[in-house]
Design brief:
two-stranded antiparallel sheet, mainly alpha, two-stranded parallel ribbon, 4 strands, about 400 residues, Rhopdopsin 7-helix transmembrane proteins, 15 helices
C-alpha cells in the first residue's frame, strides 16, 4: 500500500475549482442554449480544459530541466497540453458544430482540427517513449499508433470537408434550428473518427503500459511517493475506466438513447469532472515514468555509479540535497598559529626538494606548479577574503 501526496493535492485543487465554479457561476452555461450541437461548452468544461493544460505544461517544464529524460516524453506532455488549450478555446468561443442542424461555425472546425493533430502527436510521442525506454520493437504499439493516425486522417477529412462547404457555415450561434434527419456526410465522419481516436488512444495505453511497467521493474524507483511500476498500471486503469474509454461508452449511449437523456446522465454524474481528473492522473503517471526511465548511459559502470549513489529524483532526500547544495558553506579559516607554521615549513621543504644546481625546465615547471598550487589554496589576490586576511595578519 502506497500513499502519495501529489495526486491527492492535485485532486484537492481540482475539486476546489469545481466547487468554486458551482457556487460562483450558478448558471450551467454562458449561453442559455449551450447543450445542443454536440458541444459541451459549459463553464466547467472549458475551465477544466485550461486547468488540465496548466498542470501538463508544469509537468513538461519540470522534465525539461533534466538532460537524461527522454525527449519524446516531454514532447508528449507539451502537445497534450496544447491540445487541451485548443479544446478549451473551442468550447468557449465556438458552441456550434452543426452535427444536428447542418449549420456549424468555421472556428469550431479549425480548433477541432488543431486539437486532433496535437492529440495524435502526443500519442505518438508516448508510444515512442515506451519503445525507447524498453528498448523493444513492439508490433502492438506500432499497430495502435497506426490506427491513431488513421483515425486522425478520417477526422481531418470530415473537418476539411465541412469547412469548405459554404452552405454549412454560419457566422454566429444558431441553436434554434430543428434537428434534421438528413445530415451532411462530413459530420458523421467527424463524429465517428473522434470516437475512434478516443478508443485508439485508450487502447494504445495497454501495450505502452505493459512495456513501461516491464522497463520500470528492472530498475524500480519511487517518484514523489509513487513507484514507477504502479504508475504504469494506474495509467492503464484510468484510461480504460473513467477517461477516453469513458467517452466511447457515452458515445454508444448517445446512439441508443435520445440526446436529452445523454446530457442528463453526463451532467448528473459530473462526467466532465471525472474525465478531466482521470486524464490528469494519467499524465501525472507519465510524468513519473519519465523520471524513472531515463536515458541509459554509454558507460554501464559510470551509469550505475551515478544512479546508485544519488537519491531518487524528486524524493525527500533529493529535495534536501538540492537545498543543501544551494546554501554555500562558509570557508574555514586557519586560526591556529602552530598549524600555519607547520604548513609553511612543509611548503619550504617541498621547494628545497625540487631545487637543483642546474636550472632545468622540468625543475622550473615543477617549482612553478607547486608554487601555483600553494597560491590556489589561499584567497585570491585583492579579493574580499584576501583583504580580511591581510588585515588580520597585521593585527
Amino acid at each position: 500500500m502506497f500513499v502519495t501526496v501529489v495526486p491527492l493535492l492535485l485532486t484537492a485543487l481540482y475539486v476546489g475549482m469545481v466547487v468554486a465554479l458551482e457556487y460562483l457561476s450558478p448558471s450551467e452555461c454562458l449561453d442559455e442554449l449551450c447543450q445542443s450541437e454536440a458541444v459541451d461548452n459549459t463553464i466547467l468544461n472549458w475551465a477544466s480544459d485550461f486547468f488540465l493544460a496548466f498542470w501538463i505544461f508544469i509537468f513538461a517544464l519540470q522534465l525539461s530541466y533534466y538532460k537524461d529524460v527522454h525527449k519524446s516524453a516531454i514532447v508528449s506532455q507539451i502537445f497534450m497540453g496544447g491540445a487541451f488549450v485548443v479544446a478549451g478555446v473551442g468550447n468557449l468561443l465556438y458552441p456550434n458544430s452543426g452535427i444536428d442542424d447542418n449549420h456549424g461555425m468555421l472556428g469550431y472546425w479549425i480548433v477541432s482540427m488543431m486539437f486532433s493533430v496535437f492529440f495524435t502527436i502526443s500519442g505518438l510521442g508516448m508510444a515512442y517513449f515506451a519503445l525507447s525506454a524498453s528498448e523493444t520493437m513492439s508490433l502492438s504499439v506500432l499497430s495502435c499508433a497506426f490506427l491513431l493516425v488513421l483515425s486522425l486522417s478520417g477526422f481531418l477529412t470530415g473537418s476539411i470537408w465541412c469547412a469548405t462547404e459554404p452552405d454549412l457555415q454560419v457566422d454566429e450561434v444558431v441553436d434554434n434550428s430543428e434537428p434534421k434527419d438528413e445530415i451532411h456526410l462530413c459530420f458523421p465522419i467527424m463524429n465517428y473518427s473522434v470516437t475512434a481516436m478516443n478508443f485508439t488512444y485508450a487502447l494504445l495505453w495497454v501495450p505502452v503500459g505493459i512495456l513501461l511497467r516491464a522497463a520500470s521493474k528492472q530498475r524500480p524507483m519511487i517518484i514523489l511517493g509513487l513507484p514507477t511500476p504502479i504508475a504504469a498500471i494506474v495509467a492503464m486503469v484510468t484510461q480504460f475506466t473513467v477517461c477516453f474509454m469513458f467517452l466511447v461508452v457515452f458515445f454508444l449511449v448517445d446512439l441508443i438513447y435520445p440526446k436529452k437523456v445523454y446530457y442528463d446522465i453526463w451532467n448528473a454524474i459530473y462526467g466532465t469532472v471525472i474525465y478531466h481528473w482521470a486524464m490528469l492522473m494519467t499524465l501525472y503517471c507519465l510524468h513519473n515514468l519519465s523520471y524513472g526511465l531515463q536515458l541509459r548511459c554509454d558507460d554501464v559502470l559510470r551509469c550505475d555509479d551515478v544512479c546508485d549513489e544519488g537519491p531518487s529524483p524528486l524524493s525527500w532526500e533529493w529535495w534536501v540535497t538540492m537545498v543543501a547544495g544551494a546554501v554555500q558553506e562558509p570557508k574555514q579559516k586557519t586560526t591556529n598559529k602552530k598549524e600555519k607554521e607547520k604548513e609553511r615549513k612543509e611548503f619550504d621543504e617541498e621547494i628545497d626538494t625540487d631545487s637543483s644546481p642546474d636550472d632545468s625546465p622540468s625543475n622550473s615547471s615543477r617549482y612553478s606548479s607547486r608554487n601555483f598550487k600553494s597560491h590556489d589554496e589561499g584567497p585570491f589576490p585583492l579579493s574580499w577574503e584576501w583583504w580580511v586576511t591581510m588585515v588580520a595578519g597585521a593585527v
